[in-house]
UniProtKB/TrEMBL annotation:
Disulfide bonds join C300-C312. The keyword Transferase applies. This is Sulfotransferase domain-containing protein. It comes from Meganyctiphanes norvegica. PANTHER family: HEPARAN SULFATE 3-O SULFOTRANSFERASE-B, ISOFORM A, HEPARAN SULFATE SULFOTRANSFERASE.
Length: 353
């Protein structure tokens, strides 16, 4: 039988092809192993972190065409066609003291601000007002921490207690424990704020009050002497309250939000908070997240952060106000004007009150 002679180059090509196919098989095998492992790991993590990091919320944002924010993508990994989102390598979500405090002002839109801010996947917020620095300071920092949601590295924790703006001793305490905290202050026309505050206290008294707004707002209605000690009036003296804070924090620690703008154009107002270096978060919330609810008379969320359903603030927000006659309105506006101007100068921002 003639001996079949295979030339060396052909032999080389042949063995090269075999080795390449083998390598491909090993590679594919490894890939499927990694995928299987990744899937089960993702499932486990998804379960354990479902309360901490809402994968669906991120995916919703992604599907809605957002550029995936760096600040989020740095801390998550996606597996299997982005069906699962898990925390990054060090992955441990922890309760931490706040990075951001919404310190007030009461009745200026603080709840709306919090609800809108927390749509951002990098924002974790305590739902109820914690009142640590004014009422529960004696419970200690670990109690405070326990009231806040766990967060991943790169996320920011926000707490809102509007009483912080006016409560005595709070700026000192905050400066002591949170020297680098960023402070958000929402303000609105102090006269509307006073009426809103009064409407709130009316509702707490079952819709009736022994005294009318005018009786409480003026020491003497005839002379027009305003009762600046009455909470609804003093709450709008922003310059006084902020001065106490500025004794402990530089102006750069604050971002002042126009409460009226927050109603008219929430997306733009929010952009200025995520913005710049203040929160250091990417702007991913836009007009598409809001719709105007004609019944409520306010902007509402197209999808709430947790439920993914449309969400308007509750009935305690957007109450009808007591109507003032023109003369009383003017007296109150005149009363606030000098304080307002000082406030504009103090913060370097102009409002139209
Ligand atoms: P009124 O109830 O007087 O209208 P806070 O949350 O600080 O208590 O502020 C309540 C105020 O938030 C409301 O005052 C309302 O004007 C204002 N607000 C701003 N945006 C709102 C929104 N999207 N829905 C309801 N209220 C909003």
């Amino acid at each position: 039988m003639p001996h079949m002679c295979i030339p060396t180059p052909v032999k080389d090509i042949f063995s090269f092809t075999i080795s390449m196919s083998l390598l491909c098989c090993i590679y594919k095998l490894l890939l499927s192993l990694i995928n299987m492992f990744g899937l089960s790991m993702a499932q486990t993590c998804r379960k354990s972190y479902s309360n901490l990091f809402d994968a669906h919320r991120l995916l919703y944002l992604k599907k809605s065409g957002f550029a995936f924010p760096h600040d989020v993508s740095r801390h998550v990994m996606t597996f299997h066609k982005k069906r699962f989102v898990i925390p990054g390598h060090n992955g441990s979500a922890m309760r931490r003291l706040p990075d951001v405090l919404i310190i007030g002002a009461k009745k200026c839109g603080t709840r709306a601000l919090l609800e809108f801010l927390r749509v951002h996947p990098s924002v974790r917020a305590a739902g109820p007002e914690v009142h640590f620095f004014d009422r529960f300071y004696h419970r200690g920092l670990s109690w405070y921490r326990s009231q806040l949601p766990p967060r991943l590295e790169g996320q920011v924790t926000v707490e809102k207690t509007p009483a912080y703006l006016v409560a005595p001793g709070v700026p000192q305490r905050v400066a002591k424990h949170l020297p680098d905290v960023r402070l958000l202050l929402v303000v609105r026309d102090p006269v509307s704020r006073a009426l809103s505050d009064y409407a709130q206290s009316l509702s707490k008294h079952g819709g009736t009050h022994k005294k009318s707004f005018e009786d409480l707002a003026f020491v003497n209605v005839t002379t027009g002497l305003v009762n600046s000690d009455w909470g609804p009036i003093s709450g709008g003296l922003y310059v006084r309250h902020l001065q106490r804070w500025l004794d402990y924090f530089p102006r750069t620690s604050f971002h002042i939000i126009d409460g009226e703008q927050l109603v008219h154009d929430p997306a733009t107002e929010l952009a200025q908070i995520y913005f710049q270096e203040f929160l250091g978060l990417r702007r991913i919330i836009s007009d598409r997240h809001f719709y105007f609810n004609a019944t409520k008379g306010f902007p509402c969320l197209v999808k709430r952060e947790r439920t993914g359903r449309p969400h308007c603030l509750g009935s305690s927000k957007g109450r009808p106000h007591h109507e003032l006659n023109e003369a009383t309105l003017q007296t109150l506006k005149d009363f606030y004007r000098p304080f307002n101007f000082k406030f504009y100068r103090m913060v370097g921002q102009k409002f139209h009150w």
